[in-house]
Structure formats: structure tokens, C-alpha cells
């Protein structure tokens, strides 16, 4: 049996949630070439997202439904930012945008293509995928939809137990 959950309200619960509502922004599921490293202060060093191995020109997919709030260039790199329910914003770079600001997107919709040249990328191309809630950066891998299998143990009544219908008083 698969049980679905929802995206939690707090960053800690987000990281511990077993069934978030987002999916990988690349297909098939990519290799993570650099992990999230939360900064200790708003302007401190860190890695405010994850880098995902990609092929140059590979389609980038919206990780979840939302509204495009930015699609353009930042410091010479193409960037797409999407606002999602719950105050989350995902960012994708370096990309050539296929969407414009104001567009409503669904999860899995192509929003751009990966450009080579992301600093520190150890493969042909990397997609930098970030997420934040307000001003707080979160680990995007905590958003990925996972499947949990729950197995219930069989339960048997003791042989001397009396079974009554639920509406019958004891």
C-alpha cells in the first residue's frame, strides 16, 4: 500500500517528510554532483541548492505546479524561478527559458533547456536547482517525491476472544 502525504510547513518537517509533492526537474532522475550546504548566515558561504548532472540542451521540468516569477538572465546565466503553494520558490540555472514570467506551469512541464558552463560542474553540464521559503534556503532533495511502502502485520484474535458487531454494547 502506498500512502501519500503533503509538503510540511516547517523546514525541519520538510526535510523529514516522506511523501512531498515535487519531482525531479530532469528526466530520468539525475546524478547529484554537488549537494546542498546551508549557509550559516544570510550572506555566508554555502551551496544554496544542488547540482544535477545533465546533458547540454536537456529539457528542464517544473518540479511542481506554480507560477513563473522570473525567466531571464542573472549575471550572464539563464534563470527560471517558480513560486509554489506554501511559500516555496524553486530556481533553475543555467537554462534557456521556454516560459515567461506570469506563466502558470504544471509539475513536469518543460520550462527550459540546460546550458553548459555552470561553475564547478564536473560533467558536460549541470542544472543548479535551488529552493527557498521566504529568505531561508532549503535542500531541494527534501522535495523529491518518494514512495513509501507500509506493511501491516496480520492481527489475529485470541481463540477465546468474543467478537461483537461494532454497534453492540459490551
- Between the first and last Cα atoms, what is the distance in angstroms? 33 Å
Structural class: mainly beta
**Percent of residues in beta strands:** 25-35%
Q: What is the mean predicted local confidence, pLDDT?
A: 82
Categorize the overall geometry. Answer: elongated
Q: Poorly predicted ranges (pLDDT <50, ≥5 residues)?
A: 1-19
Q: How many strands, which pairing sense, and closed or not: the largest β-sheet?
A: 8 strands, antiparallel
How many β-strand stretches? 11
Order of helices and strands: HEEEEEEEEEEE
Number of helical regions? 1
Radius of gyration: 21 Å
Share of helix among residues?
under 10%
Q: Would you kindly provide a brief summary of this structure?
A:
With 170 residues, this protein is mainly beta. The protein contains 1 helix and 11 strands. The strands form 2 sheets. Strands 1, 2, 4, 5, 6, 8, 10 and 11 form an 8-stranded antiparallel beta sheet that branches.
Model description:
The chain has 170 residues and is mainly beta. It is 4% helix and 33% strand. The chain is built from one helix and eleven strands; from the N terminus they run H-E-E-E-E-E-E-E-E-E-E-E. Strands 1, 2, 4, 5, 6, 8, 10 and 11 form an eight-stranded antiparallel sheet that branches. Strand 4 (66-74) and strand 5 form a beta hairpin. The model is unreliable at 1-19 (pLDDT under 50).
Amino acid at each position: 500500500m502506498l500512502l501519500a502525504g503533503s509538503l510540511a510547513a516547517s523546514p525541519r518537517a520538510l526535510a523529514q517528510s516522506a511523501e512531498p509533492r515535487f519531482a525531479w526537474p530532469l528526466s530520468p532522475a539525475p546524478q547529484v554532483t554537488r549537494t546542498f550546504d546551508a549557509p550559516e548566515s544570510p550572506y555566508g558561504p554555502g551551496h544554496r541548492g544542488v547540482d544535477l548532472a545533465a546533458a547540454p540542451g536537456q529539457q528542464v521540468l517544473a518540479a511542481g505546479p506554480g507560477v513563473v516569477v522570473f525567466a531571464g538572465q542573472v549575471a550572464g546565466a539563464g534563470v527560471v524561478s517558480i513560486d509554489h503553494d506554501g511559500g516555496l520558490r524553486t530556481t533553475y540555472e543555467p537554462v534557456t527559458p521556454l516560459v515567461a514570467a506570469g506563466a502558470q506551469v504544471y509539475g513536469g512541464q518543460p520550462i527550459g533547456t540546460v546550458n553548459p558552463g555552470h561553475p564547478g560542474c564536473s560533467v558536460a553540464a549541470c542544472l543548479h536547482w535551488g529552493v527557498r521559503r521566504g529568505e531561508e534556503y532549503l535542500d531541494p532533495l527534501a522535495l523529491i517525491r518518494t514512495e513509501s511502502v507500509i506493511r501491516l502485520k496480520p492481527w489475529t484474535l485470541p481463540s477465546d476472544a468474543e467478537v461483537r458487531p461494532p454497534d453492540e454494547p459490551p
